[in-house]
Design goal:
mainly alpha; 71% helix; Serine Threonine Protein Phosphatase 5, Tetratricopeptide repeat; TPR-like_helical_dom_sf; mRNA binding; Pentatricopeptide repeat-containing protein; repeat
Length: 468
């Protein structure tokens, strides 16, 4: 509050001019001492002066704590009151009336706006400004929004004009409401005109509103020019900005150009979200490609969200769609979520295949849940799904990592009996498993024997031996 009632000489001069301006608007004459010629008693009773001071300080405190915009003008009025005091902290009743008129007028304006009396509010605002009162921008912004919703953008623009000429300073929210109103009414040129004359810096919401309107109107080239202007003013695009432009570019120039914009987005440190990816694709093939790329980049949660939205996009997920996301989750150590997707695809009458189960078995084995992996392995065998070498290798690796190499060897035998030919990877897993359990001598003997029988290349054997 001390800051609000500063008595600096600079403020005294400013507030005297402000008082003169208001008195002239009221039709009063002001002499050089700053006193009006109206008949006002110079000897205000002490109790009245104290009451006036209490009212003024309370009003200022209420405005300060409300966090509302446009309150700088009230502070100036309060400073005017203080700077014209007699030096003992007593306020002149003339200046008190100015501040009270501002407070009371704005309270009445708020009440009109609150009750939806927009036309009355507009008339009252004009009357306020005519009599020299400075309006609060909050109810004025609400008036602008109300008229815009009614399609009366001309009247909303008049309010902004009155506000700008009143001494109040509209903030970016006020301008954004006006720009949004113009855009929704299809008056994009008027919106751009407001952007050009804004007295405050536009923010990303300002630009996004205009970009959306331009793109929806098929004016992509003009939208890209606005983007350049945005960057020149050090206002950085967000994910919404790029999503708007990427969607429009897809319609206008195809996915290829849109992907370039996606790369630019990433280069600027802006991370695409699910909505961004969705605007890039329009069929299940493209979705599968996108899901594969997301999983490869480790963005499996985004992939899951896109998968969940497919039905609402008119695209039914197929087996490869689920396999892609299940594999991504399994490799990310999220087999619990992968198993839920398995249940979901079964509910949709999609039959899991070798790739589905291999992904799950591999994920469980990597997480040290080997017994659960073996359980899944036998389950899909019972369902008639034939395991491949990758599936067997995953289980053997899990067993070796938990120092169960003997069981891994049994699994190798089972693998051969099932007609699945072991790969060099199969033998490498077992040899490294033996070495891991402290049986390096036995591991080397097995390695030589495998090379002699032509089951492993000598070069591969040397690489394995070098790690032991």
């Amino acid at each position: 509050m001390d800051l609000m009632v500063s008595t600096s000489s600079a403020q005294e001069g400013f507030c005297l001019i402000q008082q003169f301006h208001r008195e002239c608007k009221r039709g009063n004459k002001l002499d050089v001492s700053g006193r009006t010629t109206r008949s006002i008693s110079s000897k205000v009773p002490l109790w009245s002066r104290k009451r006036n001071r209490l009212v003024l300080v309370s009003a200022a405190s209420k405005v300060e704590s409300s966090g509302l915009n446009g309150r700088a003008q009230k502070f100036e009025s309060l400073s005017s009151v203080h700077s014209n005091s007699n030096g003992n902290g007593h306020f002149s009743s003339v200046n008190s009336s100015f501040v009270l008129e501002d407070v009371e007028s704005n309270n009445h304006l708020r009440q009109l706006v609150r009750t939806g009396e927009l036309e009355e509010g507009f008339k009252f605002l004009e009357n306020m400004v005519y009599h020299g009162n400075v309006p609060d921008i909050i109810p004025c912004t609400t008036l602008i929004r109300g008229f815009c919703r009614m399609g009366k953008t001309r009247k909303a623009a008049k309010i902004l004009e009155v506000l700008e000429g009143s001494g109040a300073v509209p903030d970016v929210i006020t301008y954004n409401v006006m720009i949004s109103g113009y855009c929704k009414a299809g008056e994009i040129n008027n919106a751009l005109s407001v952007l050009d004359r804004m007295s405050v810096s536009p923010d990303v919401v300002t630009y996004n509103t205009i970009l959306r309107s331009l793109c929806d109107s098929g004016k992509l080239k003009q939208a890209m020019e606005v983007l350049d202007r945005m960057l020149q003013r050090d206002c950085y695009p967000d994910v919404i900005t790029y999503t708007i432009l990427i969607e429009a570019t897809c319609r206008d120039s195809g996915v290829g150009q849109a992907m370039k914009l996606l790369d630019e987005m990433r280069d600027r440190g802006c991370t695409p979200d699910v909505v961004t990816y969705n605007v890039l694709v329009n069929d299940i093939v493209t979705y599968n490609t996108m899901l594969t790329a997301l999983c490869k980049d480790g963005k499996v949660e985004d992939a899951v969200e896109i998968l969940n939205q497919l039905s609402s996009k008119g695209c039914s997920p197929v087996l490869i769609t689920y396999n892609t996301v299940i594999d991504g989750l399994a490799k990310a150590g999220k087999t619990g979520k992968a198993i839920k997707l398995l249940d979901e695809m079964r509910a949709k009458d999609l039959k899991p295949d070798t790739i589905t189960y291999s992904s799950l078995v591999g994920g469980l084995s990597r997480e040290g849940k080997v017994d659960e992996a073996i359980k899944f392995f036998h389950e899909f065998e019972r369902m008639g799904v034939r395991p491949n070498a990758v599936t067997f290798n995953s289980i053997m690796l899990g067993l070796c990592k938990t120092r169960q190499t003997d069981r891994a060897i049994d699994f190798l035998v089972y693998m051969i009996n099932r007609g699945c030919k072991p790969t060099e990877t199969s033998y490498t897993i077992l040899i490294e498993g033996l070495a891991y359990e402290g049986m390096a001598k036995e591991a080397l003997e097995l390695l030589n024997e495998l090379c002699n029988k032509g089951l492993m290349k000598r070069s591969s054997a040397e690489q394995v031996a070098g790690k032991m």
